[in-house]
Amino acid sequence: MKSIIRDISLADKGKQKIEWVRRNMPILRSLEEDFRATAPFKGVRVVVSVHLEAKTAYLAKLFAIGGGEVSVTGSNPLSTQDDVAAGLVADGLDVYAWYNSTKEEYEEHLNLALGYKPNIIIDDGGDLVNLLHTTRKELIPHIMGGCEETTTGVLRLKAMEKEGVLKFPMVAVNNANCKYLFDNRYGTGQSVWDGINRTTNLIVAGKNVVVAGYGWCGKGIAMRAKGFGADVIVTEIDPIKAAEAVMDGYKVMKMTEAAKVGDVFITVTGCRDVITQEHFKYMKDGAILCNAGHFDVEVSVEQLEKLAVEKQEQRKNIMGYKMDNGRWINLLAEGRLVNLAAGDGHPAEIMDMSFALQALSAKYMLKNFRNLGNKVIDVPAEIDIAVAEMKLKSWGVKIDKLSGEQKKYLNSWAE
Ligand code: NAD
Ligand code: SAH
User: In the 8-state DSSP scheme, what is residue 180?
Assistant: First the structure.
């Protein structure tokens, strides 16, 4: 049986969404032209497990246009858009995903997508890699390698590499300059606020916004909160990042202190138990909590559920929890990535860069996998630079070039 989706009658709506992002992803459009002419993925089986919304659909189509045999699944039970999945199926791709899948369905969909015996995997957070190293080991001989999209996924791959258990090479797409400097910072910075604002429809100006984690994502979220007129508080565990936040003009304090004054809390650490029962009990009535980091364990939803004396849906994607002191705490999108579970994720122009890195890194893997070892490798600098150049070209921005004399000067020590 091919494709498991909710409703094929949504295909036209999905195709419209895919066409809109295509028109706003100029780098992928130029790769489309190239892949159509050169078919670099001819005869190659590619499995894509990334948040299944329109930009991911365009990436999957790109592999198919490049000659690949592609199967697609999601990377989070709440981020799949059923119309987009239908649009892809109508365009002839095989898709296994639907919105709001149970844990079992989500895993079944990943397994079905893997049933294609992939040669290349495009992973986002390590779900495919995990299955391939545990319950689907028999598929490893078919794998050439893959690419990982996000910070937490790369951390896990590095842990596997260190333990010597990684069985094929993986490109750490997240660690390319054209990924984290743009996607994590400006992409998360915008899309997290898009998710929060469209879900709550409340004002940000004048509020105390608490950002937990001042990494690349946290920097973007804090910067945009400031732009909206919020007072921003940062919590951190790393003294250097904390010092950076102070000099960027934010208040830095422990979460136990921030809990008492915050109006909106956003976790983006990749860690667990960042906001727990020791914080819930001090929060203001009406406090809004959400997460933008990898898993739904940054805000301890389990403890919130246990502490609550009453629970009530306040609005779509907002669950209210009443504490025994009578105060309500509101959790957005079940504590899952708020920008994707309650929004459309990063803007098209951002994913244009991230997915160009994915497509070009997959092509690189295809050519070079035999020489890479079972290692986590960086995106080659030529690809990173090429993506930046294509982005500048799409904006019509031209920059200067070093002269021979300047190059010499920069590489000398005597003058
Ligand atoms: P990063 O490593 O740059 O930053 C994480 C920061 O959190 C670090 O500064 C670290 O010191 C801090 N931190 C860790 N534990 C903490 C704790 N208990 N309390 C306070 N601070 C803590 O990572 P990043 O690129 O910013 O990514 C963060 C998370 O967001 C990852 O899980 C990543 O996979 C995810 N991510 C989400 C999106 C999205 O679209 N929502 C996009 C990119 C990355
Ligand atoms: N499996 C994880 C996924 C990590 S999410 C989970 O449980 O949800 C973080 C990644 O989502 C980021 O690295 C970013 O590149 C990606 N992302 C953000 N917006 C996106 C979008 N519109 N489409 C596809 N991926 C997106």
Answer: I
